[in-house]
Amino acid sequence: MQSDIKFLAGVGPKKAAVFNSELEIFTTEDLLWYLPFRYVDRSSFQKISEIEADTTVQLKGKITRFILEGQKFKERLIGIFTDGDRTMELIWFKSASFIRRTLVADKEYIVFGKATVFNGKINIVHPEIDIFEETASQEASMQAVYSISEKMKKAFITSKMLNKLQRTALEQVKSTITETFPPYIIEQQKLIPFFEALQNIHFPKNTEMLKKAQFRLKFDELFYTQLRILKQKRKQKRTFKGYIFGKVGYYFNTFYNNSLQFELTNAQKRVIKEIRYDLGSGKHTNRLLQGDVGSGKTLVALMIILLAIDNGFQAAFMAPTEILANQHFETLTSFLKNIDLNIKLLTGSTKTKERKLIHAQLESGELHILVGTHALIEDKVQFKNLGLAIIDEQHRFGVAQRAKLWGKNENPPHVLVMTATPIPRTLSMTLYGDLDISVIDELPPGRKLVKTIHSFDSQRLRVFKFMRDEIAKGRQIYVVYPLIQESEKFDYKDLTDGYESITRAFPPPEYLVSIVHGQMKTEEKNRSMELFTSGQAHILVSTTVIEVGVNVPNASIMIIESAEKFGLSQLHQLRGRVGRGAEQSYCILMTSYKLSKNAKKRIEIMVQSNDGFKIAEEDLKLRGPGDIEGTQQSGVAFDFKIANIAQDGAIIQLCSDLINEILDEDVELKSEKNTILLSEFEKRKRVKLNWRIIS
Ligand code: ADP
Ligand code: MG
């Protein structure tokens, strides 16, 4: 398995170099894990008469003659192909003489490719061609197809060559290959042997065997990924002592009894209980608090902060943007207005004098709560006794930043990560298998669901009228433009153009339109925000800076321009900015007529559903896990060869349950029956996962 790929018969140093650089294939084992991306059935064929344009077809027949057209170097080779019934053209623009030499007239071929219509005639350009062999086609009715990059093509590495190499590789490892699971798991889970799985993934005997092979290899990948995460989690729980927040004291009780204006939802109560249990257990808490926008996470965070203070600790509350940090600071301050606690805000724009004061008060312990942005994890910021760190909207923070927060006290502070972007369960199991999860799955009472409407750009006048009517009722409106980093200037132009057209439609002095975007100075930004939050401005035109957390209950309409450019979770986040007050709220998704299939689907989902978890699942299906926010930063290797997090939830669950059972009994995997598990585990531990303790 571990021998260098260049020694495999048929490879050699030149091709090996391409394998190395293009596919990171260095060993025979790597090659065997280079899996086909599809299979073609080499036993069933279409008739030329049945061909539909722009579909992929497989035909059997003969080339009766060749025609060479065009001038030298611009020539085109045409093969007249017949299936015995009708004829069509196969066309080559390149390698004409090579093709002409290798293909023989009147020999039986299998032709595979995309049928296109040109000048009213059906043809296939650059088809794949195989010699038809009666026996071979019966034996391997499914032939593996491997993806081939341009560089591979240039090095003459074809899919067909990969078929051959895989055959050789399988031969080579056959006698020495070792099983990756102990017998008891193989039996229990009805897995086919590892070698058989590899064999059938490259050369399926039939569809049933292919399925078994796929299951076996998916199980393999997911099991060892989960094992790593779950083992780490247990280790972490053993290694780190957690500060014990044993008592519920003055601050918590006073707030709960005197300051809280409303009844907590059942979900909030349950979640607070879960977290309190954690914090009293002596173990270190590393918990993810999930809850849809507006579900009341901030309040939960505050109550946990009070618990920390009751037990003699300081708390930090970190937000991803200055706007959000400001807002959290204000929310917390107003919640705490009748309670004598010292709470301060630290951001990039905090003045030096204030900053110095904050540093001093943190070190002396006078400061109870510090709210801020990244600024609060700078080295200069030293706490006397940091016991709790709340991190809002975790996906905006990189791993390294969280690691820094981790080192702010002797033992790491308890960490509560809050996110409004629900993470599908399967994904959170792999991504955050080491985090405990609490879910607020209920909105405070009296909320009306936001109505979502899809509107085309051409209907803008109607939208303007609707806006005027709502403003007349005293409502406020967000208008959001996409911001794509690569073309910031261009987007900025969209935004300013939009702002101008809206100001024209809503002119002063009757209307006040304010604007916020990333290129404004902080003070300017704050002033604009303030105009809107205070209710003076009727409309806030902005980029996605308002995406997370901004809370203006009187704003009841969210208009999203070029909605097709946003991802689902982002659209859902934006929609969550409205529907925070008692009035019926609306979200209007503006798009052009031309929409990609995917974009259309996203808009449909948004119009149909208000359920963040459902939207997250759909998002995962549409985009695949690699693109979901947070996965890049998470550092978990998502380069699964065959497993698919969006589709293989059941297998992930199966593996997790099984692993937990195994670890309950044998956490170090030291018992004899788990020898194979331990050695495979060690073998696959290529990437260091130390930082995971703080994810
Ligand atoms: P999230 O951070 O989860 O998006 P917030 O904590 O900002 O949600 O809460 C949204 C709004 O709902 C805030 O104005 C908050 O004061 C209010 N709120 C929170 N919990 C409740 C509750 N149990 N009943 C009524 N209103 C609540
Ligand atoms: Mg929030």
List descriptors.
binds magnesium ion; binds adenosine-5'-diphosphate; single chain; seven-stranded parallel sheet; OB fold (Dihydrolipoamide Acetyltransferase, E2P); 695 residues; Rossmann fold; 41% helix
* Class based on secondary structure composition and strand pairing: alpha/beta
- Rg, Å, rounded: 31 Å
Helicity range of the residues?
40-55%
User: Largest sheet at a glance?
Assistant: 7 strands, parallel
CATH topology description of the largest domain: Rossmann fold
CATH class of the largest domain: Alpha Beta
Number of beta-strand segments: 21
Structure description:
- It is a single chain.
- The chain is α/β, with parallel strands linked by helices and 695 residues long.
- The chain has four domains: 1-42 and 147-174, no CATH class; 44-139, OB fold (Dihydrolipoamide Acetyltransferase, E2P) (Beta Barrel), CATH 2.40.50.140; 250-440, 3-Layer(aba) Sandwich (Rossmann fold), CATH 3.40.50; 451-609, Rossmann fold.
- The chain has a seven-stranded parallel beta sheet with strand order 11-12-10-13-14-9-15, with helices on both faces.
- Strand 18, helix 19 and strand 19 (539-542) form a beta-alpha-beta unit.
- Helix 6 (159-173) runs antiparallel to helix 8 (194-202) and helix 21 runs antiparallel to helix 22 (612-623).
- It binds adenosine-5'-diphosphate and magnesium ion.
